[in-house]
Amino acid sequence: MNFRVVTSRGWGWAVVALLCLVVGVAQGWIELIGLGVAGLLTFGLATLYALFRHSHEVSFHLAHERVVVGDEAQLVVTVSNPTGHSLASLDVVVPVGEQQVETLVGRLRKAAQDDITLPVPTEHRGMVQVGPARVIRQDPLGLISREVVHGDVRTLFIHPRTIGLLSMSTGFVRDLEGNPTRDLTGSDLSFHALREYVPGDDRRNIHWKSTAKTGQFMVRQFEQTRRSHLMIVLDTEPEVFATDDEFELAVSAAASLGVRASTGRLSALREAARELASRRRAERGSAPARIRAMSTVSRDRLLDELSGVHLQEGSPSIVELSRLASAQAADVSIAFLVTGAAVDSKTLHSASVAFPAGVEVVVVSCAPEASPVTRRMGRLTVATIGRLDDLQQLLGKRMAVS
User: Fold this and answer.
1) What is the pTM of this model?
2) N or C: which end of the chain has fewer CB within 10 A?
3) What is the DSSP string of 260-287?
4) For 235-285, how does the pLDDT look when each residue is reduced to its tens digit (9 = 90+)?
5) Within the chain, how many helices (H) and strands (E) appear?
6) 264: closest CA among 292, 291, 229, 236?
7) How far apart are CA 385 and CA 244, in angstroms?
């Protein structure tokens, strides 16, 4: 796409030249007529200069399309000269979110190429739209500016910080990898004992050596293997978070739990970990509030979606959010509710009873700089964290007594 724009200087130049010409003709001033004609000719030459398309080839790419908040991100702009002669300098501007990253490319010799690396700010988590690149070319006097757009819009995912939770294969999620339970079944992986054959038993489970010794058919009995369905509910109600840092801590905690669950040995349960973020409360008279389940196909996909989670006015309360989440996933065995420090104990208890009996409910209450502490409220466990590192410590303590 090409854009030709008369600059403010260009408009001023044209108006002054035209006035000089009109006044000079009216007053018979040869000097003013000369100035007017010269000005208009100069404006016309600048217009002709802008008509010619620049011969530069311009492209850009992100050095890394996914970075962690605060880490280094770079935008690489490549400008090349495919012609057999030198090309004049030009400005390249690339929109990065709401900012503009601008660089000046000097004169390029024939067949030359210039790669320019520009820093991209990553102070805040988010999904940043980058591009397209705009090449700006002006005449020497700056009367006419021509812009040519190159490339498409690309997305830079700035992920929340996460912490490794290596010990989550025991304790709260001790059965994530299929540990045996006390429930007995006729077919599974964990052998329990032998018993006499009864009509209806699978003959493939007959233990022939024991049958030969006892003279009666003996079959194997197994302990049923259990795999957890882990749910993580992230509160996005602005009233429960005192500061932006408190909400960012909550997002990082939810991301850490989700990443650990999605990277566990869940060969048969790819959807075992669910990251849930609330949508806006529906307007009165419209459909009821809903929640959005985030993808857990891969670690990057999960963090990509969490990059775009923000506080939302009118979001469901943690109690309503828990009810909606419980209704959408009836097979949940462990539920983490990640919220702010402003939620009181009564509200947390109401949120926990939204889940059916047998579901382990853990509230992660985020309060920056607070001392880490874990307390038990009936079947509800409340873990308060002041830093992301506290999550590993508190889960480890709770799991030690599980």
Assistant:
1) 0.71
2) N
3) HHHTSS-TT-TTSEEEEEEPPPPPTTSS
4) 999 999 999 999 999 999 999 988 877 654 332 223 333 344 444 343 334
5) 8, 21
6) 229
7) 16
- Assigned token pair, 120: 């991209």
Residue 116 and residue 79 in contact, taking contact as beta carbons nearer than 8 Å: yes
Q: Are β-strands 133-138 and 90-96 bridged in parallel, bridged antiparallel, or unpaired?
A: antiparallel
3-state secondary structure of 45: helix
Measured CA to CA, the distance from residue 277 to residue 69 in angstroms comes to 20
β-sheet bridge partners, residue 157: 66, 127
8 Å CB contact between 180 and 224: yes
Q: How far apart are the C-alpha atoms of 258 and 165, rounded to whole Å? A: 10
- Alpha carbon 70 to its chain centroid, in Å, reads 14
Residue owning tokens 């690309």: 154
Per-residue pLDDT tens digits for 304-327: 999 999 988 888 888 988 888 887
Going by C-alpha positions, the residue among 90, 30, 98 that lies closest to residue 54 is 90
SS3 52: coil
